[in-house]
Amino acid sequence: MILLSAGGTGGHIFPAAALAEDLKSRGFDVALATDLRALKYKDSFVGVDVHVLKSSAWSGGLLSKIKGAFSMALGYVQAKKLIADLKPEVVIGFGGYPSVPAVLAAQRQKIPTIIHEQNAILGKANVFLAPRAERIALSHEDSIGLDKDDKLRAVVTGNPVRKGVADLFTEPYPDIQPDGAFNIFVMGGSLGATVLSKVVPDALAALPEQYRKRINVVQQCREEDRESLKEKYKAAEIGADVSVFFNNVSEQLQKAHLIIARAGASTVSEVSTAGRPAIYVPYPHHADQQQKINAEAVANKGGAWVMVESGFTADALGARLETFLQNPQALFKAAEAAQSCAKPDAGRRLGNLVVALARGWD
Questions:
Q1: Would you call 174 exposed, middle or buried from its count of C-beta atoms within 10 A (0-12, 13-18, 19+)?
Q2: How far apart are CA 96 and CA 128, in angstroms?
Q3: Do residues 302 and 341 make contact, with C-beta atoms less than 8 angstroms apart?
Q4: pTM of the prediction?
Q5: What average pLDDT does range 8-22 have in this prediction?
Q6: Dihedral of CA 5/6/8/10: which sign?
Q7: Does the pLDDT at position 235 exceed 70?
Q8: % of the chain beyond a pLDDT of 70
Q9: Would you state the pLDDT for residue 142?
Q10: What per-residue confidence (pLDDT) applies to 212?
Q11: 190 pLDDT tier (thresholds 50, 70, 90)
Q12: Which pLDDT score, from 0 to 100, does residue 285 have?
């Protein structure tokens, strides 16, 4: 039995789901400990028991911190019981505060643990758990946040992506005909991104008609933005599929000529594995600017373009899109560069690390 522990956002859940798929293919029983937010991703964990534990962020004012500490303590008690029932061989944490109770409980019961970090900068939960973890799996060679002793136990595995996305690594970039369809996939992250819903349709609507009639848009958005977004595309006579959630991301990536997205670690990993050029608009309010660093890792190799939110305007985006439509060769080259940043076998690598630890191998 292997227990996975992850925060309930897509950035933590999707790598956990990819590892679960690998471990089940090896014959392991797998369970997941998480929070309520993850229940909407339950379909990604076929044959995996999902357990919801209490947890809370340690932020805000004094009262919020007290409530958070109480919630985490309750989650820790729940995690101890869960571990006693499941008797896992290894526990793997994927970050986010909900990952802490199960991993911490395992560490205090001398059960081997691995933490996996998706971003180039370690999150607070993983920084807290790293000193007691037997192995630290990283997605980036030059990850920031580990001390000297922790680096000795670090292994670069990459960031696991779902099988349907990993399979795209061997698929060619879709051809762009001079008068053919131009497919744009707008990914807002697991919570959507209002700035994309405001800027992207305005930029596309301002393009010359000869370009607008070629464009097909698939866009993820927040529920509160969906109707207005549909109306904007309808008024601009642009074909669009707008939804709060897409359960066929691999299919959308396969068709896309260009991605416009936030730069969460899982998004960047999936887009790079699929070999799709992207315009990344990093979330600007992380203190450590983790999304900007994720995006720049690909942009520096020519596989993407980074537009900071303050400069992400309809005029700026429109000018860039018009350049791509006039010179599709730039996208073709960027697609190849993006794929050079991918580790499509990250799930297998992380699975190998779990097996080695479970068997007591070096």
A1: middle
A2: 11
A3: no
A4: 0.91
A5: 94
A6: negative
A7: yes
A8: 98
A9: 84
A10: 96
A11: low
A12: 83
The residues, ordered by sequence, that sit 6+ positions from 121 with a Cβ below 8 Å of its Cβ are 143, 144, 145, 288, 290, 293
Tell me the C-alpha to C-alpha distance, in Å, between residue 346 and each of 59, 123, 236, 296, 332.
32, 20, 41, 20, 25
Place of tokens 């990344």: 280
Cα angle 219, 247, 308 (rounded to 5 degrees) comes to 40
Higher pLDDT, 192 or 70: 70
| Contact indicator for 44, 60 with CB cutoff of 8 Å | no
Tell me: pLDDT of 330 over 80.
yes
Per the CB < 8 A criterion, the answer to whether 136 and 150 are in contact is yes
| Chain centroid to CA 118 | 8
91-100 pLDDT, tens digit per residue, is: 999 999 999 9
**CA dist., res. 117 & res. 119, Å (int):** 6
Distance CA 176, CA 163 (A): 26
